[in-house]
Every structure is written in C-alpha cells, then in structure tokens.
Amino acid sequence: MFEIKHTLCPSCSVGCGINVILDNEEIVGTFPYKRHPVNEGKNCLNGRLSAENVTDRHPFDLKALNDAVNKLKSGSNEKTTVIFSGNNSNEDLEAIKSLCESNGFNILAYADNLKGFDSVASYEDIENASNIFVIGNILYENPLVGRRIVRAKNNGAKIYVNDNLENTPTSNIADEFTSVSVKEFIENNNIDEESVIIFNKVDSFEDLNLIESTNSNLLPVYSKSNTKGALNLVEAMSKEDAIELLNNTEILLIFNDDTVNEIDFDFKSISQIVVFSPSENDTTEIADIVIPVKSWLEYDGSFTNCEGLTQKFSSLCESDYMSITDIIEKINEGLE
Amino acid sequence: MSYILAKSKDNAILEAGECGGAVTSIFKYLLDAGIVDGVLALHPEEDIYDGVPTFVTDSEDLISTAGSYHCAPTMVGDIITKYFSDKKIAVAVKPCDIRSIEELIKRHKIQRENIYTIGLNCGGTVSPMTGRKMIELFYDINPDDVVSEEIDKGQFIVELADGSEKGVKIHDLEKQGYGRRDNCQRCDVKIPRKANIACGNWGAEDGWTFIEINDEKGQELIDGAKSAGVLETKNPSKQSVEARSKVENIMIKMSKKVQESKFDDAEDMDAWKRCIGCYACRDICPICWCHENCELNKSYFKDELNIPPEPISFQGVRLSHMSFSCVDCGQCDDVCPMDIPISLIFDKLQKKYYNRTGYIAGVSDDIKPPLYSPDKIEL
Ligand SMILES: Cc1cc2nc3c(=O)[nH]c(=O)nc-3n(C[C@H](O)[C@H](O)[C@H](O)COP(=O)(O)OP(=O)(O)OC[C@H]3O[C@@H](n4cnc5c(N)ncnc54)[C@H](O)[C@@H]3O)c2cc1C
Ligand code: SF4
Ligand code: SF4
Ligand code: SF4
Ligand code: SF4
C-alpha cells in the first residue's frame, strides 16, 4: 500500500514539515509537504535524508535494561549525569527531567554554547525587518531560516553577516560581510531594538550576554529539532561547565544524542556510559550499554522550533521498540 | 479525436466532482471491472490546500479524491516510475504530469501499456501557502472557511460553505506576486492531448465534464464506463467546442507573453550565489531519473567545499543533460530552499531547442528527443 504521511523534520530546530512515503508500511522516501507553513515543501538535504537515516537497530534486550538499572542502583546519584538533548520530544524530555529530579541525577543540557531566551524573533519578524545581523553560515546550515533572510533582502532589508568563511551562500547575500569575533561584530555595528540578530554559533557564553544587551530581536537557531523545548525545561550549560560536570561523572545516561561528536571530552574516562538511541552512531560505539528505542517516526510527540512554535507529530509506522517515556517508566519501576 | 460531454450516473460522485464527476466515474469503472490494480489521484489531507497523492484500490474510497485542487502543485511522473512500475494503474494527470510521463516512457522508465491516463486541462496551480495568504489579503476571507476554489474566466474564485463566491482577477493577483506559480504563468500546454482523454470545464455545460478523446484507449474508457452504467454522455454543441478552443488559445497567448517578458531574467544568474548545493532540484525533477548514476555524483563534480557550486558545473551539467526535455512543471522551483527560479532557465532552453528543432518536451511525437535519436538533425 502506497501512502504519503505528514511529519516534522528532526534534523534541526527550524521546524520544517516533511512528508514521508510508505510502501507496504515501510518508509521508502520523502515527499515535499507544500502545505506546511514553515517551509512550504522545501527541505534541505539533511531533512530529506532524515527518514533514510533511521538505521537498523539491534533487537531490544530486557537484560540490557536491567543491567542499566542495576548500574544506577549501585552508583552514586550525585555522580550520575543525564544528557538532556534537543533530539527528544517535549514529552520524552518531561519524563527525563522527572527521572533526574526524583533521583537527584545531574542534568547536562549543552546546546553549542547557546542558551534559551524568553522572547525570540519569529520568522515573520525576519521577513519584515530592515536590518538583519547574521552570525554563522545560516543559509547553509539552517536553510529554511536562511530563506527568510533571502526574503527579507528581497523586501529591502540590509543584511550584515559575520562568519569565519568567505564565499558561502550566507556571505554572498550580505550587504556587509565581516570575519571578526562575535564581540567585535556586535560592538562595531549599530544594532538597535528594531534589528534582528540571527545566530547559530557564538565564541563563548559571554557573547550571549552581549547579544542580549542590544535589546534587539534575537533568534538563536539550534542544531537540534527540540533544543528550544529542552531549554524551556532546563537551563543550558556553557562548554566549560559541561566539561566540569563530565569530569565529576561516573555514570552517564545519554538519551538519543551523539554527544561524543559535540563535546570535546575524553568520554572513555567515564566508567559507565548507557545510551538510549534510535540509531547507531559514534556515541553508541563507545557505550557500555546500548538500549535501542523508537525513532520519531514511531511515536507521537511534539517539538518546539527555534521561534517557539510547538508542533505535534504522529507515529507513522509500527515498531518493535519502546519509546523513551516507556523506558523511563521501566527504569523508575526498577529503581523503586 | 472527438469531443463529448459526460457526467456521472452516481449522485454522490456527481455532487463531489468538480464538473460532471466524469473522471471519478471512469476511475470507478476501471477499478470495479478489475482493469487496473489501483488509481493514483489526489485527496485533501488536512484541507483543500493540502492535496496529497493517494493510491486507491477500492472504488468506495474514490469519493474522497473527487474535485479539483488548484492549490496542489503535485507531480506524478517520478512517483509512477519509483513505486508503480510493476502495476496496472489509472492516473489523473495535468499537462505537466502527462508530459513527464511521456518523457519517462521514452526513457523506458514507464510502460505505456500499464497506465490509463485521465487528463485534466490546466489553467495553472497556486502554491498552497501562497493561496492561503492571498485569500487572506485580497479576499478578506479566512482561508479555512473556503470549501472549494476554481479558476474561471480569468479569475481565481473561492466558494464558502454558504455557497457564496468571491473572485479576484488572476492578473491583479499575479502583478503583486501572488496567483499561479511562475512556471504555470509561462506554461503553454493547457490541454493534455497525450493523455487518453482530456477533461475540463472549458466548453462544458454546468454539471457536465467536457472530454476530448485523444486515442483508442480513451474511446475504450468512455465506451466501457458507459456500458458499465456509470457514465452518461451527449454531444457538445459546435459553439461549446469553439468556445473551448478560443479560451485555450487565449491562455496560450497569455503564457507566450509571460515567456517573452521573463526569459531575459534567466541571464541574471545572481541567485545561484546562494545555492546550497542540496540537489533538491535535481532529485525532484521528473526528467532527471538517473540519480544513483548521475554525473553530478562523480568525484570530479562532487566538491563539498565548493558551496555555492559553480553554476556551470552544476546546473550546467543538468541543463546539457535534460533541458531539451524540461516540461516546465516547476517542481524544482517549488522545492528549492533558496527560492532560486530554476525552471526559468530550463524552460527557456527547452523553448530555444523547440525553436530550432520543433521538439516540444512530452508533446512531440518523436520516439526520442532529438539529441537521443539516431538521426540527429544539424542545428
Ligand atoms: C489545477 C487544475 C486546474 C484546472 N484548470 C482548468 C482549466 O483552466 N480549464 C479547464 O477546462 N479545466 C481545468 N481543470 C479541470 C477541471 O477542473 C476538472 O478537473 C475536469 O473538468 C474534470 O472534472 P470532473 O468533475 O470530471 O472531475 P472529478 O470527478 O472531480 O475528478 C477530478 C480528479 O482530478 C484529481 N485532481 C484534483 N486536483 C488535482 C491536481 N491538482 N493535480 C492532479 N490531479 C488532481 C482528483 O483527485 C480527481 O481524481 C483544472 C483542474 C485542475 C486540477
Ligand atoms: S532546515 Fe532544518 S528543519 Fe528544515 S529541512 Fe533542513 S534540517 Fe530539516
Ligand atoms: S505547469 Fe502547466 S500543467 Fe503544470 S500545473 Fe502549471 S499550468 Fe498546470
Ligand atoms: S527542470 Fe524543473 S521545470 Fe523542468 S522538468 Fe525538471 S523539475 Fe520540471
Ligand atoms: S534546490 Fe536550490 S539550493 Fe538546492 S541545489 Fe538546487 S538550486 Fe541549489
């Protein structure tokens, strides 16, 4: 049976819709979701590959889960840290947060040195802005926010870009391009309250305070689909604090995240790493225990995109795996 | 070639259909008689702006596919190639759909004997979100309150649940950047004469579908549906045939005018500088079918560090491989994250090719596009 079903792209925080093609209940491709208000059927390569990237997982093994629970029981709660990743749905994150709170585990929410802001610019604000300050190669890395900048430019906006790479799609649409530190970029430009600053990377946590001090409309664009949702629940950590916490960690629980490729740390120094993952990656590779879980194609949930819009998605196919929320229920039962 | 007016003998289909529900009734006949394994049509998923291809195997489910979705710029050529090559199917096709199917048949990707093509005349499609915004702005109507839309007499008309209608001239909408997609404004194939039959409202009386029967298979469809008792037909008057042909010619003239005024813009390649090299345009193009073996995947073209890619080594390759077969479906524009008006240059080159060779992609009867043909013509 051939079917086309709606879902959300899980590959960055822009919140694009994407259609998935199922042939006899097997996912065989993607299809433009032109009715979706965020991206109107346009997806970048990462988005179009997202469904294909759900790789074969090992079968679920209850013993591995029991082993993990026993590790948690015998370990010290203060030395247990949980990675709070924006790859998870709001519902799973709620479950992860309450697991941490009821057991006194540390929560590590690292978002490329970015943090959450109470109020952010909407995509419509971008299109209506007169001056847009861009930090990073947004057109390439978050294309469907990049498109809003292109549209703003067509509406007459002036675009200032700061990035370390020249001749990128983003620098090519700039009216003014610089390659200086974030600090200099913010201080050297006349950024007022009407301006929009769009950024997906900064040099340090301090840069964020500087950006905030302009009082302009800010849009941090995160690399994960639900980082905004995650940072609505817990505070983001700077890279330095994250490393310090990892240094004091004996048991690390990683829910759906490729942490080893994000934080420069010697993860082998941690005595027990338990990874709950819908796919195999470099992090499952170094883990002591790997517990396969459902991918976003297999459960119902919601993601909050970088402009703060919460969108639901539904399970599209049957699965032999458990969701993270169900796994956490089992862990809670085991820890009682 | 002959003309008839047709309407469904099933009241529910007549009610749900756009004109006489003839298309849906013919699908019903083909399914019920076991002539096809299934029907590929559209159904509105979330609302009327969300027409999604669907494969119907039980004629009871056809009712949800009836009607015309003007804000659903879909393409079925590549879907048939990828997912239905081993099935007997019937499919609703706009001119750009059938043109892509014809090109794919030439490339041995679709087998003609496996498909029944029910053509829909096409004045153009509107992108769903553009359609919604335009209804808010120019009609002062909540797009969610619209139950159906149609393009008639140069207007884009919306109908509300209480039966009231409001129309705005397409020309006025398009002057302000709304209305039909850019490629549709240039599209000069309005009646799908390569499909077995071409159905439309042009020249039709209220409650009837005007059908041009294009080939023997088309005649069999009509005869079969009639003898199965699902379709009734009558002959159109001479005036309606003439009226239809008059509108067709006006539409073609309008498109040629847009082509003339827009083709010069293709020279301005500034937009390529924001290309992110995502290949969405290539992957969606129904004519670019050799994805895995695509020349652009070869190491000498793959240059991850070079984003934006040099237009000449990226689109240049595609242009030289397939622009002569571009059917101006606009799918490449639709999916480009950077809003680059890609189809403009492909369409321009196809028209240039036509001017030299007379070859219209997906329309001309040649067995193969001239570049592929053994008897190459000197240009
Ligand atoms: C976008 C569009 C523009 C049109 N413009 C004209 C025009 O300018 N002049 C003219 O004479 N006729 C036009 N038509 C054709 C006309 O609207 C009717 O579809 C046709 O007369 C058949 O009517 P019916 O009642 O027999 O069809 P129905 O029994 O209502 O069946 C229509 C079939 O078309 C399919 N369909 C609906 N929307 C689309 C779509 N966007 N793409 C592919 N398939 C679709 C449906 O799923 C259904 O199977 C257009 C149709 C469309 C879809
Ligand atoms: S921009 Fe982000 S959300 Fe949109 S398709 Fe690309 S990866 Fe997915
Ligand atoms: S390209 Fe032509 S046939 Fe296709 S949707 Fe546009 S107007 Fe209709
Ligand atoms: S180049 Fe674009 S407009 Fe031409 S056939 Fe391919 S997708 Fe359609
Ligand atoms: S879809 Fe647009 S951005 Fe992507 S490769 Fe094609 S032209 Fe470039």
Number of DSSP E strands of chain B: 11
* Gyration radius of chain B, in Å: 21 Å
Instruction: Please provide the ordered H/E string of secondary-structure elements of chain B.
Output: EHHEEHEHEHEEEHHEEHEHHHHH
Overall shape of chain A = globular
What level of helicity do the residues of chain A show?
25-40%
Write the CATH architecture name of the largest domain in chain B.
3-Layer(aba) Sandwich
At CATH level 2, the architecture of the largest domain in chain A is 3-Layer(aba) Sandwich
Hetero groups bound? flavin-adenine dinucleotide, iron/sulfur cluster
In whole angstroms, the N-to-C terminal distance of chain A is 45 Å
Radius of gyration of chain A: 21 Å
The 3D shape of chain B can be described as globular
Helix/strand layout:
The complex is a heterodimer of chains A (336) and B (379).
Chain A: E1 2-8, E2 17-23, E3 26-31, H1 45-49, H2 62-74, E4 80-83, H3 90-103, E5 106-108, H4 123-128, E6 131-135, H5 138-141, H6 143-154, E7 158-162, H7 169-172, E8 176-178, H8 182-188, E9 196-199, H9 205-212, E10 217-220, H10 227-233, H11 239-247, E11 251-255, E12 272-277, H12 282-286, E13 289-292, E14 301-304, E15 310-313, H13 324-335
Parallel strand pairs in A: 4-5, 4-11, 6-7, 6-9, 7-8, 9-10, 11-12, 12-13
Antiparallel strand pairs in A: 1-2, 2-3, 14-15
Helix pairs in contact in A: 2-13, 3-13
Chain B: E1 2-8, H1 11-16, H2 22-32, E2 38-44, E3 51-56, H3 77-83, E4 89-93, H4 95-106, E5 115-120, H5 128-139, E6 146-152, E7 155-160, E8 165-169, H6 170-175, H7 182-186, E9 197-200, E10 209-213, H8 216-227, E11 231-234, H9 238-262, H10 280-284, H11 315-322, H12 331-335, H13 342-357
Parallel strand pairs in B: 2-4, 4-5, 5-9
Antiparallel strand pairs in B: 1-10, 1-11, 2-3, 6-7, 7-8, 9-10
The complex binds flavin-adenine dinucleotide and iron/sulfur cluster (SF4) (4 copies).
